[in-house]
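2024-03-11 09:14:02 INFO worker-7 job=invfold-0412 stage=load source=structure_tokens
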């Protein structure tokens, strides 16, 4: 049985707190696992959340500020210590290659695992697999930053009433799916398009075209909301979003499940983020993230 869920490993912004670890997000997508922005302490948070090094297939780093990348050293060494049997691919901004190299080789250890590097330097597709297409979009932050998006290929939903009307049953259902036509009946006559799921991950950024492109039509949007709306000037100055801005993006993009995260330590009441997101008009499912939370990706419509 396929499982698609987001595991929250950390939700703090620049400064961790007693209750919030630095960033870290693990997306389980059927048989693959993608680790986003492993900040300091991610290896321990993975242990607490039941996420093993063997679960990782990709690592996606949005940018090289410490709260999004200092955990790379420990995670990479754990991958090698556990002798993960498959190749793992790391995506990160090409301009930060020197930082990735330093973190990858921060201390002495024995390299036993194939870690492929696929740096990002422009908008577009990074990987195309049978399960998803992974693409990136440039964001607006003081250092080069990219957001990531997974898009599942569209599929087909068979319609029992139409199949019955055309007398198609048993093995013939599989046959028309494979061949596209059966006794003059086309696949379009007995099925409809089932839109593939969409997931986006947007971290440190001001409002920009990339944010809107990543969020468009997403089933789940994980997005930073470092500041509350009363601190919008600070958000713009430091290259971040407010709760209201993030929720407005989600509302305009038709997002089904909005996950707010990356909170400044200046705020103590998480409910304030939900109130401001609702005040911005977002009516879909809303989660104000906390560490070690597991969130299922919404089921297909």
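2024-03-11 09:14:09 INFO worker-7 stage=emit residues=301
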């Amino acid at each position: 049985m396929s499982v698609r869920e987001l595991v929250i490993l950390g939700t703090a912004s620049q400064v961790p707190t007693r209750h919030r670890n630095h960033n870290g997000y693990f997306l389980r997508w059927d048989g693959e696992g993608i680790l986003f922005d492993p900040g300091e302490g991610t290896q321990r948070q993975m242990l607490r959340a039941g996420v093993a090094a063997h679960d990782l297939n990709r690592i996606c780093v949005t940018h090289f500020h410490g709260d999004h990348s200092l955990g790379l050293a420990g995670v990479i060494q754990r991958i090698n210590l556990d002798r993960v049997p498959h190749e793992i691919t790391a995506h990160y901004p090409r301009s930060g290659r020197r930082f990735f190299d330093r973190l990858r080789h921060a201390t002495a250890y024995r390299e036993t695992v194939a870690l492929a590097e696929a740096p990002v330097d422009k908008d577009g597709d990074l990987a195309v697999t049978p399960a998803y297409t992974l693409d990136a979009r440039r964001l607006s932050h003081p250092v080069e930053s990219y957001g990531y998006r997974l898009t599942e290929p569209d599929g087909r939903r068979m319609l029992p009433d139409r199949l019955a009307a055309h007398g198609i049953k048993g093995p013939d259902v599989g046959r028309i799916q494979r061949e596209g036509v059966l006794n003059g009946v086309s696949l379009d006559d007995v099925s409809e398009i089932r839109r593939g799921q969409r997931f986006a991950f947007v971290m440190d950024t001001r409002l920009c075209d990339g944010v809107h492109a990543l969020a468009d039509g997403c089933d789940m949007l994980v997005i930073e909301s470092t500041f509350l709306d009363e601190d919008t000037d600070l958000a713009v100055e430091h290259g971040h979003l407010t709760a209201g801005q993030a929720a407005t993006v989600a509302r305009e993009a038709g997002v089904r499940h909005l996950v707010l995260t990356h909170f400044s330590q200046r705020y103590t009441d998480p409910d304030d983020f939900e109130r401001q997101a609702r005040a911005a008009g977002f009516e879909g499912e809303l989660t104000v993230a906390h560490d070690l939370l597991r969130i299922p990706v919404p089921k297909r419509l």
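2024-03-11 09:14:09 INFO worker-7 stage=report msg="The mean pLDDT is 96."
2024-03-11 09:14:10 INFO worker-7 job finished
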